[in-house]
């Protein structure tokens, strides 16, 4: 191990960057659907050893001293995001005649931008670098901070945060109920990078013991939490509808009636187990293939499809505007009662940049650009959303598609069920839909409520408050799944206090790294003093 660490530390030039990119690309295998968590215990030690050799020239300015570490981190992040998010390019091939030219921007350009956060993390870690376990804590604290920044900067894109790799199963997910994915980002790096201490003979027992204790605590807490008895309440039954419509047909006028008929047929199909019809039916994001204002007959068809007491949640495009005024389009969810009346609605708050709307629209439209999913009419973000009603007097906050990846924006306080509608057909049968599902599972655990997730194509699933999937429809499958839903909440604590927990983790890691770096810093000062009397 020492020989391997030394050889990596001494790499220079393109070999250093290539090894960093390869280590990052391998790390992507720790995310869904592969869940090869073992590779994280190899990728992060390699990053640590690369950073050991990334010291700037003595006497150089502050930024120049951090530059080698930042470049190393950038290549690591670039490899990670290219390998983990390349599938985003599939969305540009749905209308390849219009958007294929942008493939390099999606496959290479976006990872190049996201890698800046890993570059920043490695540069910050070098500020508190030492030659012992303290440097592992410094890297963990820096990644916690920079992954948190990735949730917010430029509207945020926290896809495949490091913490997800440490929680591939429901047992391992339960810790998110206390510290969230944000806190897990720091602890995951701390544990994943621990094998780096075996690259030297200095103080390896305590770091190894700490990693084992953290892993044992995560597993033990998961077993304990899942074993807790759940309150018994009156359940309602729900049906998730997955029409599996090819994305290139979804808005084709020639297919609209057939698509709507399929949705109605899946809604009215008799339950496979001979039970009564479900109380709630959920159609996926933008499932209604036309504006309801243009097809009043559609409301009547919905009413005919619903039996007394049934409700329907349906994703739709909602238009707002008056004659002579440019229409505003919202990505919405409608709640219909059995008479076809809309009894509740919610609009999407957090839109996908370059997908549903065009940032800097005035400038970019002059260059002939448009949002990929807007079809010439970009969506407008809602100023506030609602919680459409559920059967039995309940209500459900409805994060729409992309919104589910933002831990701080999903808030089910006061509710016991979430309804998540999405459309992952854009990305084909790649890692993307599985990664999206994993993030939905963690939101259910963090919020402590059941999630009903309906996808046009992707993975529709009923997810219980422990992140367990109790019913699902696989990618490419057309059909419906019925499940009884017991609306209960098992939130571990008030969600307002969870950020305090992960900032406490950050503070402990940063203080420990600072403490460990002080002797290292004094030694460097002494050496510099001797070299320059």
How would you describe this structure in keywords?
single chain, 533 residues, alpha/beta, 6-stranded mixed sheet, 4-stranded mixed sheet, 17 helices, globular, disordered C terminus
Report on the architecture of this protein.
It is a single chain. The protein has helices at residues 2-9, 14-27, 40-52, 62-85, 90-93, 96-99, 103-127, 134-150, 162-165, 170-173, 176-192, 205-226, 256-268, 296-305, 361-366, 431-447, 498-531; strands spanning 236-242, 280-282, 311-320, 328-336, 342-347, 417-422, 450-455, 460-463, 469-473, 479-485. By secondary structure, the protein is α/β, with parallel strands linked by helices. The protein is globular.
Compact summary:
Helices cover 44% and strands 12% of the residues.
Count of separate DSSP helical elements: 17
- Biggest sheet strand line-up: 5-4-3-2-1-10
Low-confidence runs? 527-533
Q: What spatial form do the alpha-carbon principal axes imply?
A: globular
Helix/strand/pairing class, anyone?
alpha/beta
In what range is the share of β-strand residues? 5-15%
Rg to the nearest angstrom? 25 Å
| Beta strands, count | 10
Percent of residues in helices comes to 40-55%
**What order do the SSEs take from the amino end to the carboxyl end, as H and E?**
HHHHHHHHHHHHEHEHEEEHEHEEEEH
Mean pLDDT: 91
Main β sheet profile: 6 strands, mixed
Termini distance? 37 Å
Write the layout of secondary structure elements.
Blueprint: H1 2-9, H2 14-27, H3 40-52, H4 62-85, H5 90-93, H6 96-99, H7 103-127, H8 134-150, H9 162-165, H10 170-173, H11 176-192, H12 205-226, E1 236-242, H13 256-268, E2 280-282, H14 296-305, E3 311-320, E4 328-336, E5 342-347, H15 361-366, E6 417-422, H16 431-447, E7 450-455, E8 460-463, E9 469-473, E10 479-485, H17 498-531
Parallel strand pairs: 1-2, 2-3, 6-7
Antiparallel strand pairs: 1-10, 3-4, 4-5, 7-8, 8-9
Helix pairs in contact: 1-3, 2-3, 2-4, 4-7, 7-8, 8-11, 8-17, 11-12, 11-16, 11-17
């Amino acid at each position: 191990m020492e020989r391997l660490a030394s050889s990596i530390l001494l790499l220079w030039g393109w070999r250093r960057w290539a090894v960093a990119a390869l280590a990052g690309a391998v790390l992507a295998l720790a995310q869904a659907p592969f869940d090869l968590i073992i590779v994280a215990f190899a990728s992060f030690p390699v990053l640590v050893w690369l950073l050991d050799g990334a010291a700037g020239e003595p006497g150089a300015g502050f930024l120049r001293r951090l530059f080698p570490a930042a470049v190393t981190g950038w290549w690591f992040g670039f490899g990670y995001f290219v390998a983990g998010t390349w599938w985003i390019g599939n969305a540009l091939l749905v209308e390849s005649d219009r958007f294929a030219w942008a493939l390099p921007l999606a496959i290479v350009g976006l990872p190049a931008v996201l890698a800046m956060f890993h570059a920043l993390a490695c540069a910050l870690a070098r500020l508190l670098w030492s030659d012992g376990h303290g440097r592992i804590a410094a890297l963990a604290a820096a990644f916690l901070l920079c992954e948190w920044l990735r949730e917010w900067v430029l509207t945020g894109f926290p896809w495949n945060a490091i913490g997800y790799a440490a929680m591939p199963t429901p047992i391992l997910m339960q810790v998110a109920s206390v510290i969230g994915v944000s806190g897990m980002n720091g602890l995951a790096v701390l544990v994943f990078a621990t094998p780096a201490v075996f690259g030297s003979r200095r103080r390896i027992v305590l770091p190894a013991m700490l990693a084992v204790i953290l892993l044992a605590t995560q597993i033990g807490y998961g077993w304990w939490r899942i074993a807790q008895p759940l309150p018994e309440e009156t359940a309602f039954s729900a049906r998730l509808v997955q029409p599996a419509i090819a994305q290139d047909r979804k808005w084709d006028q020639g297919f609209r009636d057939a698509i709507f008929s399929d949705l109605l047929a899946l809604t009215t199909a008799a339950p496979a187990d001979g039970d009564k019809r479900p109380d709630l039916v959920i159609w996926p994001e933008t499932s209604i293939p036309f504006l309801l204002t243009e097809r009043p007959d559609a409301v009547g068809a919905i009413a005919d499809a619903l039996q007394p007491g049934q409700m329907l949640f349906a994703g739709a495009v909602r238009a707002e505007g008056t004659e002579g005024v440019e229409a505003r389009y919202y990505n919405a969810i409608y709640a219909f009662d059995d008479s076809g009346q809309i009894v509740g609605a919610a609009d999407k708050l957090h839109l996908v940049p370059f997908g549903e709307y065009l940032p800097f629209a005035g400038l970019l439209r002059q260059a002939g650009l448009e949002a990929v999913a807007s079809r010439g009419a970009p969506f407008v973000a809602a100023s506030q959303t609602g919680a459409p009603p559920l059967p039995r007097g309940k209500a459900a906050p409805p994060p729409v598609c992309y919104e589910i990846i933002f831990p701080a924006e999903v808030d089910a306080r006061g509710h016991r069920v979430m309804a998540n509608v999405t459309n992952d057909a854009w990305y084909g049968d790649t890692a993307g839909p599985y990664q999206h599902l994993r993030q939905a599972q963690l939101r259910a655990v963090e919020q402590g409520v059941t999630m009903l997730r309906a996808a046009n194509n992707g993975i529709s699933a009923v997810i219980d408050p422990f992140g367990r999937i109790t019913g699902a429809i696989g990618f490419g499958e057309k059909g419906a799944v019925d499940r009884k839903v017991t609306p209960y909440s098992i939130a571990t604590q008030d969600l307002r206090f969870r950020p305090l927990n992960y900032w406490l983790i950050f503070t402990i890691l940063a203080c420990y790294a600072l403490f460990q770096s002080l002797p290292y810093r004094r030694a460097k000062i002494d050496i510099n003093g001797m070299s320059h009397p």
